[in-house]
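Obj.: predict assembly geometry.
Materials: sequence records (below).
Method: joint structure prediction, all chains together.
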Amino acid sequence: MASILLIIAQRLALGLVTLFVVSIVIFTAVNLLPGDFAQLILGQGATPEAVESIRRDLGLDQGPVVRYFQWLAGAVQGDLGNSFAQANFASFAGSDTGSGLSSVAGQIAPRFENTMFLAGVTAMIAVPVAITLGVLAALFRNSVFDRATNILTLSSISSPEFFLAYILILYLAVQNQILPSLSLVNDDMTFLERVRMTLLPALTLTLVVTAHMMRMTRAAIINLLASPYIEMARLKGLSPMRVIVKHALPNALAPIINVIALNLAYLITGVVVVEVVFGYTGIGQLFVDSVKIRDIPVVQACCLIFAAAYILLNLTADIMSILSNPRLRHPK
Amino acid sequence: MSFWVETVLLLAAMCAGGWIFRFVGRKVTNNKPFFRDMSYGVAFGYVLGAAVLVWLIWAYMLSRSSDMMVANKYFFLGKAIEGFLIFAVAAWIFRLFGRKVGTEGSRKLFRSMPLTASFGIMIILIYAILAIFAAGIAPHGQEEVFARANIVPGGDVNLGGDPAFPLGTDQIGRDILSRLIYGAQNTVGIAFVTTCLAFFVGGSLGFLAATLGGWTDQLLSRAVDVLMAIPALIFSLLLITVASAWFTGFGLTVSMVVIIAMIDSTRVYRLARAVGINIVVMDYIEAAKLRGEGLAYLVFREILPNATAPLLAEFGLRFCFVFLTISALSFLGVGIQPPLADWGTMVKDLSSFINYAVVAPQIASAPLLAAGAIALLTVAVNFVVDWMLHKSSGLKE
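Observations (raw structure tokens):
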């Protein structure tokens, strides 16, 4: 047991180091920008005094290393700096009203919650469906059902998210008004209302990730079917369903859990496009909007959050596959 | 709420149908093993499949009915079924053609090919022809603006169409068909160039790391690890934000190509290094080293020819990823810049048309055509790669 804790601790430390290096990469990339932010905010006609004042306000008069550690220290404490788009620059405008809006953390927090909600609903639908379909495809392998699901899943993996999104909008929102095509969520909604609003984007994401998980489940089970203990179970006269669910599935869990975690990590990328299509007020939409108006602190913070979630999920996949594999759990 | 009641009733009917189907089958065929050993799940599957088939035929009939409201509702399903059948028949004919014409090797290849793979090859060929000869095939220029905007697709004058513009025009009066064809050139061309660049950079560095080993390998591999820890789409959005400070218009498109190629080359690097490490331990590499061959000769003349098979399959998949990333970026408004016609941008620009689907489905088909064009190519490439991988792995079950 001690060795397994050690392995997990090692992985966690490795994840932290990766995150640290990633934060350096993000910071460096952003600081490659020519000119400086102050000039960018004020435009061409800015007076040198105004530029100087904003530079002081944002701490841009310090060196990059100092600024990096200030940013990092802030980020660790949950303070991600101030957004440019809604900056009100107390010293420049001469007043300090509405300072709550301008902090990046204040903008991101509610949207982060929404995104997590969307990802959660997606996972709740996608994981059971994917595993059931995968088991069925392995059970009826090489049948018409298997081939049909193979073609369907391959097509849905390779379609862009917005194509699937528009097809769903077309059928479920425009032609049959079952679900709303715009997912406008707010805090006043009841839980059920909120789920209803989120269902269409969640279904789109489900289509994207289910296919991959299902194919991996099928492949993982079929890989095991040639092993002697499965042969034994068959010779005992067990039904094919029982052989797969009771004997093959538990041993196939490691790769399946792994691929589930990887797909949840993939959701993070997919969420960006889907949120834009459905106007869902999540972190992905904020990210794209900030990219368009070049609101650097928000872009930087969103990027860091996405990377952190991505690393965390990959780490989980790693640890889960160790935990579910006795051979890795008791290394010689 | 009647929708749910109907659904439940339908499910119950199909459950009963499965049982009846098996029971009748046993009676009629006098307990043939096929029906005798059929589990209930399989019987239900047959009934479900039959129900879906009947529903599709019924929906197709409705899509051709004279009542416009009903026909509109099933317009897309009808078109999808037509498209599916036409493509299936075309792929079958194409495979038949491939079996009769060509060299002995290519004929043999076509004989063992599943229909999905021949469909994929056919689509890729069509796209390639469209992309190369776009200027000759498209009826109008991609940036040409005509006086009449918002012409309805379909070319039916009564519905607000125009035979000169078979797929209509967009909000500012550009011909959608021409833009779709030029889109093949721009979107596919740019994605192809990006993938080639990613393979050149990632492949050479990967083989280099495998050949040299030691510090070079460690340094490159750790750098790649870090870059791969950031989700690709997010990282490219960040870098494009930075690049947009320097470039606009065409320059931004070029910088996007470089950025995506760099990000994707990390994935290629991983594969190339993994394949390369298995090759560098071979005797013929040792012999080449003893002959005193240079590094470039080792990488390009000794390692590369022996690594083509896995790299080729990866090239197909990588192309799909790059293509989808570029389309997604364009859809978000930061990818390929106007005035170049591009499918992702077209979907975004035309997406508001989708709300007219109830009254005039022809209008709503415009954004779906552009999105469908993207999906069709990636599906085709995936089918071909799937077949190649299946063939080389020798999987039977």
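Conclusions so far: Chain B has a mean pLDDT of 84.
To do: check interface contacts against the pulldown list.
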